[in-house]
Amino acid sequence: MIGDITYTVPHLMYWDWRIAADLFIGGVGVGAFVIAVLNSLYYKDKYPAVSKIGAVLSPILIAVGLLFLLSELGHPMRIWRTVTGFNASSPLSWGALFQTLMIIVGAIYARMWLKPGSSKAARNLVGIMGLPIALIVGANHGWLLAISPARPLWNTGPATITAMIGFATTGMAAILLLLCLKKHKAPAAKEPSAAWMIQDFRALLVGALIVQGLTFLVWYISLNYGSADAQAALAAANESYGPLFWFVGIGLGLIVPILLQLSEIIGKRDTNTMPNVPLTLLTVVLILVGGYVFRYAVVMGGQIL
Amino acid sequence: MSISRRNFLKGAGVAGAAAASTAVPGCTGTRETNKPGDGPRYGMVIDLRRCFGCHACSIACKAEQDVPLGRFKSWVNVSERGSYPNVRRDFLPVLCNHCDNPPCVSVCPSGATWQRKDGVVMQDDEICIGCKYCIQACPYGVRYTDPKKKSAEKCDFCVHRLDQGVLPACVNTCNARARVFGDLNDPDSAVSRLLASTPVQSLRPAMGTDPRVFYIGLDQAAAKPVKKQSSLLEA
Ligand code: SF4
Ligand code: SF4
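# iron/sulfur cluster complex -> structure
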């Protein structure tokens, strides 16, 4: 006999792709809200389509994410127990509370964008009030996983930060996806066209993707050079989900989009030419697919040890 | 105090019931377990020098707790290590550690997992929403979901027996007498005397859970967490 063998009872994996779907879709919704509000405040409604799309997408996506979470529960009809048995030390209790609050605030904000003649000041106020809630929901998604020492792959600070930045990039990608699908007007048109918004937002997207990559690197280093438990958890996750994670989650979802958009930024110094819409479309689809695969691999891989 | 395996908890039934009545399931307030003098705090010592891996405890638990097929509340890991001729085989009985700082209680969003004053970590099927967060939070992999009840389950030290002054089924059935159970707050209890006289270890102390199941002769290398297979998804 060589090496170590342990004979034990079956040890199952209890969370499946639906948890990743909740984190991903809900996260895109949070990101879309933040981008909608910041766009409205920073660009002073220069690009109303961005804010409108983000505002409408946000509550819908967060609600869909919540549905995925409910479908994963053994007793979804008992969800009200999270209110009556509220546990202040449980990230899930806070998550349920703030995610519900986010849907309500997001729905009000979307309504204000859709209703003609609604006050801009009131809309901005609702948006500003929603921002901290969105950030809490975003952080909660990372904190939910990071809290448990029993799961060393998740149990690191950078996990939460990477998750939060992931929301911003995927939220932005979702908005850009819809912008790309809109009709594009000529550059000379009075109203700035979707294509021109893409131009402005691209640098922001590339910047956020690079920051996301760097925080991921910190996360990876903290595991790779961390405790024996962290190293073992990383190796175990890599063994089962490594190819999917590295090839799709990081390669196609992060590195290729950065390269594609950098080539577009470097190749087209003349800002008067139309941005390459199909290329942007490809970029955002890759970011979204990669974003989901990233979360899936982390949720599943983290349960192995 | 003389200890017999039949009536070891003489009087503890009353104490246990009193302890249980002060804690309310579904209410996740402060989680203070009894300090010495306040009442019992239950715990177990497993003497690995005595365990010979007969799995009687696993079977007794299955029968007593009606544990579904393919799931276990208490079992024995068997590990073989080394290269011939320097090989060794270890038996490691595993069950809920009824931690003093139980992460499963901290993360439960519904209050379904809670802790009695006597330290027993409980799980209430009627309240559990089946989120499985407690399963993710437990560093020892001792929780599972019941395929029929759809709620998270775990060992409860056989409280239905404890409250009647009877030992947990696994302790009662262990023919090597490797399991010693009792009140850690009572300096005269068998478990306290054993703890006072023999060095003990606990599983994964770095997790900060403060387990109340102790081992004599534990080799931490044999107590590594078990790797799950990605193909073994809960049905
Ligand atoms: S061993 Fe696991 S299930 Fe038992 S009390 Fe500790 S954390 Fe909870
Ligand atoms: S599965 Fe049940 S006991 Fe476990 S954390 Fe969720 S609600 Fe609590």
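# post-check
Residues B 107-110, 112-113, 123, 128-134, 151-152 surround iron/sulfur cluster (ligand 2) (CB under 6 Å).
Chain A touches chain B through 51 residues (CB under 8 Å).
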